[in-house]
């Protein structure tokens, strides 16, 4: 395991988290798509950091349940994050292009789910 690459994943995840914290102070309904995207990205990067810490190369996917599957054998208690991961996954691409939009409610929920995943994974990383 490379400690440096784990630190890089964490740094990138925290950049998404900081963006979320700044964006939520504005009119959430006007930027819900980008908030949901950063929520998913923060969770994805934290999961990848923990995979990397365990000496594995994270799969190239935005599907959070696939990333979670990489961790369950070492951390069975993370199964409690399954629903959160499945709920956040669509935000990686669904609202990034014309045709669909997320709502203020989606954005608020995405922040909540990301906060939960971030907290649990940070505890495992420390």
Concise account of the structure shown:
By secondary structure, the chain is mainly alpha-helical. It has helices spanning 3-23, 32-53, 64-72, 82-88, 104-125.
Task: Give a structural overview.
With 126 residues, the protein is mostly helical. The protein has helices at residues 3-23, 32-53, 64-72, 82-88, 104-125. The protein has a single domain (3-125), classed as Four Helix Bundle (Hemerythrin (Met), subunit A), CATH 1.20.120.330.
Features:
mainly alpha; single chain
> Uncertain regions: pLDDT < 50 for 5+ in a row?
none
- CATH architecture level-2 label: Up-down Bundle
Task: Output mean pLDDT.
Answer: 95
Encode the helix/strand succession as letters.
HHHHH
- Strand content range: under 5%
Report the C-alpha radius of gyration, rounded.
14 Å
How many strands, what sense, and barrel or not for the largest sheet?
none
- The number of helical elements comes to 5
């Amino acid at each position: 395991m490379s400690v440096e690459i784990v630190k890089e994943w964490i740094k990138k995840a925290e950049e998404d988290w900081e963006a979320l914290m700044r964006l939520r102070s504005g009119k959430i309904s006007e930027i819900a798509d980008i908030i949901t995207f950063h929520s998913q990205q923060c969770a994805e990067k934290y999961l990848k950091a923990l995979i990397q810490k365990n000496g594995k190369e994270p799969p190239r996917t935005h599907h959070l349940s696939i990333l979670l599957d990489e961790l369950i054998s070492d951390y069975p208690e993370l199964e409690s994050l399954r629903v959160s991961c499945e709920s956040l996954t669509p935000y990686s691409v669904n609202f990034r292009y014309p045709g669909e939009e997320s709502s203020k409610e989606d954005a608020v929920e995405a922040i909540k789910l990301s906060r939960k995943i971030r907290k649990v994974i940070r505890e495992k990383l420390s």
